[in-house]
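Slide 14.
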Amino acid sequence: MAVTQFRSRRKVTGGRYKPTSKKIKHKGHLPTLTLLGERKVKLERTKSGSLKQKQLSSDLANVFNPKTKKFEKLKIITITENAANRNFIRRNIMTKGAIVKTDKGLARITSRPGQEGTINAVLLDQK
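Slide 15: predicted structure.
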Protein backbone atom coordinates (compact mmCIF):
# COMPACT_ATOMS: atom_id res chain seq x y z
CA MET A 1 0.00 0.00 0.00
CA ALA A 2 1.42 3.35 -1.04
CA VAL A 3 1.16 6.35 1.27
CA THR A 4 1.17 9.68 -0.57
CA GLN A 5 0.81 13.33 0.37
CA PHE A 6 -1.40 14.13 -2.63
CA ARG A 7 -4.91 15.52 -2.48
CA SER A 8 -7.73 13.42 -3.87
CA ARG A 9 -8.17 13.39 -7.64
CA ARG A 10 -11.91 13.80 -7.19
CA LYS A 11 -13.99 16.66 -5.82
CA VAL A 12 -16.64 16.18 -3.13
CA THR A 13 -19.27 16.29 -5.89
CA GLY A 14 -17.56 13.47 -7.79
CA GLY A 15 -16.03 15.64 -10.49
CA ARG A 16 -12.34 15.44 -11.33
CA TYR A 17 -9.65 17.98 -10.57
CA LYS A 18 -7.49 18.96 -13.53
CA PRO A 19 -3.87 18.01 -12.75
CA THR A 20 -1.74 21.10 -12.11
CA SER A 21 1.56 19.20 -12.16
CA LYS A 22 2.93 15.81 -13.06
CA LYS A 23 3.47 12.97 -10.61
CA ILE A 24 6.54 13.07 -8.42
CA LYS A 25 8.62 10.14 -7.21
CA HIS A 26 8.67 10.98 -3.50
CA LYS A 27 5.98 9.12 -1.61
CA GLY A 28 5.33 8.65 2.09
CA HIS A 29 6.14 5.47 4.00
CA LEU A 30 4.26 3.38 6.50
CA PRO A 31 5.43 3.84 10.11
CA THR A 32 8.21 1.58 11.41
CA LEU A 33 6.95 -0.01 14.61
CA THR A 34 10.04 -0.92 16.65
CA LEU A 35 9.56 -4.22 18.46
CA LEU A 36 11.25 -5.69 21.51
CA GLY A 37 13.70 -8.38 20.36
CA GLU A 38 17.07 -9.00 18.74
CA ARG A 39 18.51 -5.85 17.10
CA LYS A 40 17.51 -5.38 13.45
CA VAL A 41 18.08 -2.18 11.46
CA LYS A 42 16.90 -1.36 7.94
CA LEU A 43 18.54 1.30 5.76
CA GLU A 44 16.14 3.36 3.68
CA ARG A 45 16.99 5.83 0.94
CA THR A 46 15.47 9.27 1.46
CA LYS A 47 15.16 12.39 -0.65
CA SER A 48 18.45 13.62 -2.14
CA GLY A 49 20.06 10.19 -1.76
CA SER A 50 20.63 10.28 1.99
CA LEU A 51 20.17 7.15 4.08
CA LYS A 52 17.96 6.81 7.14
CA GLN A 53 18.35 3.98 9.66
CA LYS A 54 15.06 2.49 10.76
CA GLN A 55 15.17 0.25 13.82
CA LEU A 56 12.88 -2.74 13.35
CA SER A 57 13.62 -4.37 16.72
CA SER A 58 16.01 -3.99 19.65
CA ASP A 59 16.52 -5.17 23.22
CA LEU A 60 19.15 -2.59 24.30
CA ALA A 61 18.84 1.09 25.14
CA ASN A 62 21.29 3.93 25.84
CA VAL A 63 19.96 5.04 29.23
CA PHE A 64 20.96 8.35 30.87
CA ASN A 65 21.08 8.35 34.67
CA PRO A 66 20.35 11.92 35.90
CA LYS A 67 21.90 11.29 39.34
CA THR A 68 25.31 10.12 38.08
CA LYS A 69 25.10 12.12 34.81
CA LYS A 70 26.31 9.10 32.82
CA PHE A 71 24.99 6.89 30.03
CA GLU A 72 24.72 3.11 30.32
CA LYS A 73 23.73 0.48 27.80
CA LEU A 74 20.92 -1.47 29.51
CA LYS A 75 18.79 -4.44 28.48
CA ILE A 76 15.08 -3.73 27.99
CA ILE A 77 12.92 -6.29 29.80
CA THR A 78 9.41 -5.15 28.80
CA ILE A 79 7.28 -2.14 27.88
CA THR A 80 5.13 -0.90 30.76
CA GLU A 81 3.42 2.22 29.36
CA ASN A 82 2.94 3.83 25.97
CA ALA A 83 0.97 7.06 25.61
CA ALA A 84 0.87 6.76 21.81
CA ASN A 85 -1.36 3.68 21.84
CA ARG A 86 -2.36 1.40 24.71
CA ASN A 87 -2.32 -1.63 22.39
CA PHE A 88 1.42 -1.06 21.77
CA ILE A 89 2.08 -2.29 25.34
CA ARG A 90 0.64 -5.71 24.59
CA ARG A 91 2.44 -5.90 21.23
CA ASN A 92 5.77 -4.70 22.76
CA ILE A 93 6.12 -1.75 20.36
CA MET A 94 8.42 1.12 21.37
CA THR A 95 7.84 4.74 20.39
CA LYS A 96 9.00 8.10 21.74
CA GLY A 97 7.59 8.64 25.23
CA ALA A 98 7.10 4.94 26.00
CA ILE A 99 8.13 3.78 29.47
CA VAL A 100 10.23 0.61 29.49
CA LYS A 101 11.43 -1.63 32.30
CA THR A 102 15.23 -2.05 32.32
CA ASP A 103 17.76 -3.74 34.58
CA LYS A 104 18.14 -0.55 36.68
CA GLY A 105 14.44 0.45 36.78
CA LEU A 106 11.94 2.34 34.63
CA ALA A 107 13.12 4.57 31.77
CA ARG A 108 11.34 6.87 29.32
CA ILE A 109 12.35 6.69 25.64
CA THR A 110 13.45 10.09 24.34
CA SER A 111 14.44 9.17 20.76
CA ARG A 112 12.34 8.05 17.81
CA PRO A 113 13.56 4.47 17.19
CA GLY A 114 11.63 4.02 13.95
CA GLN A 115 13.34 7.06 12.42
CA GLU A 116 16.68 7.45 14.18
CA GLY A 117 17.88 3.86 14.45
CA THR A 118 18.76 3.99 18.18
CA ILE A 119 16.89 3.87 21.46
CA ASN A 120 17.87 6.62 23.91
CA ALA A 121 16.14 6.82 27.28
CA VAL A 122 16.23 8.65 30.63
CA LEU A 123 16.05 6.77 33.92
CA LEU A 124 13.01 7.77 35.98
CA ASP A 125 13.13 8.50 39.74
CA GLN A 126 12.09 5.52 41.85
CA LYS A 127 9.86 6.74 44.68
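Speaker note: The CA atoms of residues 10 and 16 lie 4 Å apart.
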